[in-house]
Amino acid sequence: MQSLQLKIISLIIFFSITLFASTVKVDSLKLNQKIKVDSIIVKGNDRTENFIILRELTFAVGDTIDNKIIHFNKERIFSLGLFNRVEIGVDTLNVSKIIINVEETWYIYPIPFWYVEKNSIKNLTIGFDLVWNNFRGRNEVFHSVVGFGYDPFFMFQYINPALYYNQKIGLSLGLGFYHLKNKNETATKILNQNFSYKIIKLNGGMFKRINQFNLVGLSIGLDNIQNELNEAKIFMASNKSTDRVPYLSFYFVNDTRDLKQYPEDGNYFYLSFTHKGFNLFDVSYNITKTDFRFYQKMFSYLTLKERFVTRNTFGEKVPYYDYSYLGYEEKIRGYNNIYFENRDYFLTSYELDVPILKEWNLSFDLPLIPKSLTSARIGIYTSLFFDSGITYKNFSELKLSKFNSGYGIGLVFLILPFEIIRFEYSLNKYGKGEFVIANKYSF
C-alpha cells in the first residue's frame, strides 16, 4: 500500500513538472516599473460585492505601486477563498488604470472526513463538513459539521465579516451538540475506566477590522457539560456531574501573510484571553493562548517558516476536560497517536519549503459541470520540518530534556481554493517513524 502511494506521488510530480514547463508567468508591469494609480476596476465578480475585494487592497487611487505590491495584493484577494483565479494588471491603453480580474469559485460543497484515535478502528469518527460560502456576495459563511461513530457531534457556525461594512464590524454565531469520550488519560487511570461527556455549546461574538492586517474581537458563550459517570465528578470544575460554564473571550489578530492558505512571506500573531465561570455555578478559571508565526523568503524561492504556540490555564480549579492537550488539534509530528496532557503546553515548529510547481492555473470543461468546479490553482511543494513540544503544570518543568521532538520530510499538494493535501514521513526522538496523510497545511 505504501509503495503504491509513493508511485502515485512520483507520477503526479512528473506530470506536474511537465505541465509547469509549458506555463508562462506574466507580470503586469515591467521589472522595477512603477505607476501612479488613477482608477481601479474589478471584473468577473458576478456574485461577490466590489467592496469585499477592494477592502483587501493595500493601495488606493493616487498611490504609486510596483510589481511587488501587485503580487502581494493578488495573494491577499486570493486568500479570501472566494475565487479560483485572481489576476491584477494594467489597462493596455491606460497604464495607470488597474484592472482586477477574478474567477468565482463554487460556493457550496460537502467535504467527507474521518479520524481515528489511538490508532484503533474502534475509535473511528466519520462525517461530513458542509460549507456554504458567499451566499449573498458578502463573504458570509454557513458552516455545519456532523460526525458519527466514536465521538458523535453536530456543529453549526455562521460568520458575517461585513455585518456593518462602514464600521468594519463583523458577527459570529455558533451552536454545537457533542457526545465525546474523555480525553484525559490521568482521569481514566484514576477511575480504572473511561467515561463520556454530553456537551451543548452556544456562543456569539462581534469583531472589528481595524485595517487589512489587524482585527479585535469579543465573544460570549455558555457551555453545558454533563459527565455521564458519577464517580468522575471530581474532575469537574464544580465538583458536580454537570458544569454550566458562561464565558467571555477577548482576542487580537495581526495578519500580514501574503497567501493565507500557504504563506511565503509575512507574519501571523494571535492573542486571546478567556474567563470561564464568573464564580457562577461554582466555576471560575482562565485560559490564554498565543500563536506566533513567521514566514520569510530565502534566495527568492525557499520559504522558512517558524511557529511558537502556547496555551495556559489558571484559576481555582481547572476541569480536566479543559486541560491543554497535544495530539488532537495541535500535534507534534512524529507522535501522531501519542497524546500529552497537563495544565499548559508549549509547541514550536520550523519548516523549510521548496516549490516544485509554484502556481499553475488549471481549467478544463466537462459537460453539465460548472466551470467553477473544474478550475483550480495547483501547487506542489516539498518541505523539511522539525517540531518540539511539552505539556507542563508550572514553569520549573520547562526543561529541554522533557521536550518531545520530531522531524521529517513532506510533500504538499495545493488544490486551491478547495483543498490542501500533505504527505509526511516523520521520526520522533525514539527513532520511530510514521507516515501521515493530512488535508490541511501545517501552519
Automatic annotation (TrEMBL):
<dbReference type="GO" id="GO:0019867">
    <property type="term" value="C:outer membrane"/>
</dbReference>
<keyword id="KW-0472">Membrane</keyword>
<dbReference type="Pfam" id="PF07244">
    <property type="entry name" value="POTRA"/>
</dbReference>
<protein>
    <submittedName>
        <fullName>POTRA domain-containing protein</fullName>
    </submittedName>
</protein>
<dbReference type="InterPro" id="IPR034746">
    <property type="entry name" value="POTRA"/>
</dbReference>
<dbReference type="InterPro" id="IPR010827">
    <property type="entry name" value="BamA/TamA_POTRA"/>
</dbReference>
<feature type="domain" description="POTRA">
    <location>
        <begin position="35"/>
        <end position="105"/>
    </location>
</feature>
